[in-house]
Amino acid sequence: MPAPENASPTPVPADVPADPARRRARRLRLGAQGLALVLVAGATTAFAGMHKTVTVEVDGAPVEVSAFGRTVEQVLAAGDIEVGDRDLVAPGLDEPVGDGAQIVVRHGRELAVEVDGEQRTVWTTALTVGEAVEGLGLREDETLLSASRSADVAREDVLRVSTQKTVHLAVDGQVIDGLTSAATVRDALRDIGLVLNEGDRVSVPLDATATDGLVVLVTRAATAGETVTEAVPFEEQEVEDPTLVKGTRKVETAGRAGVRTTTYSTATVGGAVVDRQVVASAVTVPPVTQVVKVGTMEVATGVNITVSPGSAQELGKQLAAARGWGDDQFACLLQLWNKESGWRVDAENRSSGAYGIPQSLPGSKMASVGADWRTNPATQITWGLNYIGGRYGDPCGAWSASQAKGWY
Question: How far separated are the first and last CA of the chain, in Å rounded?
Fold first, then answer.
């Protein structure tokens, strides 16, 4: 039945278009708005995920950085920490970094070094004098330094290093091969035990730099006196040591020349000595025998080496004992490297780049001991013990520092 002419049409809700086309357009518009909201929410979540708090060790000082960024470079930039081509950054600048991670930054600096009188300039990221010398590939027990090993390397204008060397001393009709780390000829002769008499002459100025292989000729002054002193050469004794790697030679006791005092009676005619007889002769200062330890321990080498933690620990105990570190010190070393690497030769911290049993940062620093640093436990342990001795004095000092700081 048709509606009356004066009847009102059926009402349509205000938010629903009467036309079907308009209704479809509205549904599309609402769908697009929903998608936009989802995208905004996802972007916000991703952006929030980029925010992290990391600890950056800058030249030995920890700095907490709270910033947005995916990579090490972005986080450092957000923390206003500048780095250059000569600086050490671990992990690398392009590496991803997560919340709570640790980043190590060591700024490079020029260091003037004088090694046995030869001056040069090197770049180093070391914090201490001991680390800088280690970076030069010099052994701790064979060098004398112009500064303490624990001194801040940044405060040194010129670092003077005197390495262990052999000086050939020709005196009193014999040759004495003396071992010394002295910087000058004067101090080297004193180390070797030579006593110079008044008027004696040497072929090299006493204040000259002592260098390895230097030959010093001593000409005794003519004397009209009754007493003459002469040098007595020392002997060398080799002792096999199973705690040292085969091929290693270590001077346990440095040799020192003795002194023989001889008294003469002379007869002169017209001022010229015509007869000279020995009245008494005695060794007034006995020579000190030079004792050299010769390693006999066989250590496997090669790129395919496989080492279990137990055998690495045994090797570490032997090498530590060779330095005079007993069971108390090894107990500290055992805990330290259990924490760092579990004594695994291939242990690698993918976050910082530290490598090997001692977790050298970077691992390539161990190349100063041997090219097989990636696989040889003896190389890694030797480097690690050098590092500990130079920076902390002994393993218990390093373990104490690790407990306090979380790293060593």
Answer: 98
Domain holding 376, by residue range, is 299-405
Compute φ and ψ for 184, nearest 5 degrees.
-115, 160
User: If phi over 0 gives left and psi between -120 and 50 gives alpha, with beta otherwise, what is residue 302?
Assistant: left
Structural contact between residues 393 and 386, judged by C-beta atoms closer than 8 angstroms: no
Query: Looking up tokens 């027990």, which residue turns up?
Result: 141
62 located within any domain: yes
**176 in Cβ contact with 234 (< 8 Å):** yes
The pLDDT confidence band at residue 216, using thresholds 50, 70 and 90, is very high
Report the CATH number at residue 128. 3.10.20
From the list 401, 380, 407, 394, the residue with the least C-alpha distance to 149 is 394
Q: Measured on CA atoms in the order 265, 270, 271, 275, is the torsion positive or negative?
A: negative
Reported as a single tens digit per residue, the pLDDT across 96-130 is: 888 887 787 888 888 899 888 888 888 888 788 87
> Residue 186's closest CA among 172, 214, 206?
206
Q: Is 290 left (phi over 0), alpha (psi -120 to 50) or beta?
A: beta
Residues 197 and 285 in one domain: yes
Token readout for 93 is: 């600048």
Contact 391, 130 (CB under 8 A): yes
The closest alpha carbon to 370, from 361, 359, 381, 362, belongs to: 381
DSSP string, 272-285: EEEEEEEEEEEEEE
Are 408 and 385 in contact by the 8 Å Cβ rule? The answer is: no
| Same structural domain, 287 and 169 | yes
In a domain, 30, yes or no: no
Question: Strand locations in 16-117, DSSP E?
Answer: 51-58, 61-68, 88-90, 102-106, 109-115
Is residue 362 within 8 Å of 356, Cβ to Cβ?
no
Least confident of 228-237, 299-308, 371-380: 299-308
In a domain, 375, yes or no: yes
Same domain for 328 and 354, yes or no, is yes
